[in-house]
Design a protein that fits this description.
With about 450 residues, the protein is α+β, with helices and mostly antiparallel strands. The protein contains 14 helices and 13 strands. It folds into two domains: about 90 residues, Phosphorylase Kinase, domain 1, CATH 3.30.200; about 280 residues, Transferase(Phosphotransferase) domain 1 (Transferase(Phosphotransferase), domain 1, Orthogonal Bundle), CATH 1.10.510. Helices cover about 35% and strands about 15% of the residues. It has a six-stranded antiparallel beta sheet. It has a three-stranded antiparallel beta sheet with strand order 11-12-13, covered by helices on one side.
């Protein structure tokens, strides 16, 4: 249950994020501040004794607690609220837990909940370290490609669990994924549903997006749509997942040097729009980005397709799913080398995109209702195994039908949030900025530059 919330993020995003993570780690170790916590020893609901502080955030603290009735150890999340006020944060978390009904292996099970004035509380399964804490304790603060991809598979399963009950998490980041304990120490869990939001109505259709939405998420990992103050949907959880994947693999993100939220948004916009974000990364990163760019607010994310992209990357590279994770071995960890042209390090993509299925295939699909073609992705592993999933984008290659310029412009408009009425204004911006990749100096953009593009990213 990671510490800082992004809609309260001060100006220096990087400093705040790292400070928050240091605080989280120090609480795990039991520092001086934790030792003088007045709640330590408190008997919650006359049953759960708080014995150790393990996390602290804007909306509540997390403690290791002892169930005096069973002598079992759990985690207790507590927020202090006046009795007459309903808890906005733990109330949302409780609704998510109630929907899941303690029946999902990627979400901690709920033991108890209630009000012990002046505290509202949730008592749940005690988990291990967060993925963020694991990364920060690793050499170079990064994971190997094998560990990154294996963690990603677990994260996808976690996100699927939330989307299947009709909710969007809205704060996907490494700090909100934790590893299990004991027999489930390799399992990945998702936590912290304080700003989750329902996106499906009772009939299973997406709710109409609101026109005026505040920023939600963590600045470092939030999607471009969050920076644009747009309603978030399942695609935005996956944008945050992609950013987290890149950070786990490289130990950094391109906007690390940006000093405020507007500069971060500007960097994300150009990195994503021109696909420089994943240009030097393994093929599954590039294809996930291409797929996400094709999705609209109302589209459901094909979890199986995204998972298969990662699984196929693992298969092509010979990654053993049963091998040790980085923190489980004393061997030297081999890091991924970006921008390499060595086929042994970055093999050619095994994925082929077709704008339409070849006429000989009986599985040709079309979207007659929307008037759009559905792109069919055929992924073939070295052993002949084929995965198929519909998407709405293509990539280059011999004999491949590329999207035309009008269709690409339509995708760009969807990504940037520009409508037909803003086309002329958008052309002026493109002319002023050009299409060159932002350099490191350009990412640390000046306030003068921010004023020129503020309407583009907020």
């Amino acid at each position: 249950m990671d510490s800082k919330r992004s809609h309260d993020t001060p100006r220096n995003t990087k400093a705040v994020t790292r400070t928050g993570e240091r605080k989280h780690k120090s609480f795990i170790g039991g520092n001086e501040e934790a030792a003088h916590d007045p709640l330590l020893g408190y008997m919650l609901a006359q049953r759960f004794q708080l014995v150790q502080a393990v996390g602290k955030g804007t909306y509540g603290n997390v403690y290791r607690c002892l169930d005096t009735a069973t002598q079992r150890t759990y985690a207790a999340k507590i927020e202090e609220r006046p009795p007459q006020r309903r808890s906005a944060v733990l109330g949302i978390e409780l609704s998510v837990f109630n929907k899941l009904k303690n029946n999902n292996p990627h979400v901690p099970y709920l033991v108890a909940s209630g009000n012990d004035p002046p505290y509202n509380y949730l008592v749940m399964e005690l988990l291990g370290q967060s993925v963020s804490a694991r990364r920060h304790s690793a050499t170079g603060k990064r994971f190997s490609l094998a560990t990154t991809l294996r963690l990603t598979i677990g994260m996808i399963d976690c996100i699927r669990a939330i989307h299947d009950i009709g909710y969007v998490h809205r704060d996907i980041k490494p700090g909100n994924f934790t590893m299990g304990r004991k027999k489930r120490q390799r399992s990945v869990y998702v936590i912290d549903f304080g700003i989750a939001q329902r996106y499906l109505d009772s009939s299973g259709s997406p709710l109409a997006p609101r026109s005026n939405v505040g920023f939600r998420g963590t600045t470092r990992y939030a999607s471009i749509h969050a920076h644009q103050r747009r309603e978030l949907s399942p695609r935005d959880d996956y944008w945050s997942l992609l950013f987290a994947m890149i950070e786990m693999l490289l130990g950094r993100l391109p906007w690390d040097e940006c000093r405020d939220k507007a500069a971060v948004a500007t960097s994300k916009f150009y990195e994503v729009k021109h696909e420089t974000l994943t240009a030097s990364l393994p093929s599954c990163f590039r294809h996930i980005l291409t797929y996400l760019k094709s999705l609209t607010y109302h589209d459901q994310v094909d979890h199986t397709y995204v998972s298969n992209l990662v699984l196929l990357e693992m298969r092509v590279r010979g990654i053993d799913d049963a091998g040790p994770l980085d923190w489980e071995t004393d061997d030297t960890v081999t890091w991924y080398k970006p921008a390499s042209t060595n086929p042994a390090i970055d093999p050619p993509s095994p994925i082929r995109y077709y704008k339409q299925k070849p006429p000989s295939s009986p599985d040709a699909q079309s979207d007659a209702g929307s008037g759009r073609s559905i792109m069919t992705v055929v992924t073939t592993a070295s052993d002949g195994t084929a995965f198929k999933a519909p998407t709405a984008t293509t990539t280059g290659g011999s004999g491949v039908d590329m999207l035309d310029k009008a269709e690409l412009d339509e995708l760009d408009d969807e990504l940037s949030g520009e409508g037909e009425r803003d086309k002329k204004k958008d052309k002026k911006k493109k002319k002023r900025w050009g299409v060159k990749r932002m350099t490191k100096a350009a990412r640390a953009i000046t306030m003068t530059g921010l004023n020129a593009v503020s309407d583009l990213v907020v």
